[in-house]
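Re: the request from the purification team.
They wanted to know what the chain is likely to look like in 3D before they choose a buffer screen. I agreed to run a prediction and write the result into the notebook, where they can find it.
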Amino acid sequence: MKLTLHRANTRGHAHHGWLNSHHTFSFANYHNPDRMHFGVLRVLNDDIVAGGMGFNTHPHENMEIVSIPLEGDLQHKDSMGNTTVIRQGDIQVMSAGTGVQHSEYNKNADQEVKFLQIWMFPNKMDVTPRYDQMTLNSVDSRNTLQQILSPDPDDEGVWVHQNAWFHLGNFDTGYEVTYHVKSPQNGIYAFVIEGSFEIASQTLTKRDGLGLQETDSFTIKTIENGTILLMDIPMIP
């Protein structure tokens, strides 16, 4: 098994007043040649947006963009005509394809919004842009791994143009679960949202990330009540 460990305090950091963002991989003014991507996983940003503030309209193309809100209300508007709000317990996906413009704002003036912004390289270029979001059933992630994203529109969760599966788990102390990698070409990037876990003899705490390659399964042990996100992704962009 090959491991890539990214401690929370080694991430890139940008504070723009209205935006406080930590970057697991190179992004904007943070450039680290050793952290360009993990397989098809290109961006993993941990964003906090001040009340009433946000990202003005900007373009994307040929990227699968996933947003997972952790706190507050994030308002989305795009050139496809979508105007929506996502909250904790939701997941949002946008296939930028041939090109799309969108904005994201904190809907509330009196509280922060916190969310994970995740980009993946697609396996199909220049697709028709698309948008989707759904509300997850939190019961389905209690002491188990809930599938929240896949390559199949008919499967559980939202879908993307990539051979990728995301799972989210909310675990009590002492719980163990074994995860089986979906494809021999895939690796796993595990990201701890809250709490503490042990994977492959590595202790991971809040906002630590661990990449795993060259394995078909591994066990997750919960050290302290917490939430973990697993991204099962191709290792060749």
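For the purification team: The domain at 138-234 is CATH 2.60.120.10 (Jelly Rolls).
Please add any questions underneath this entry.
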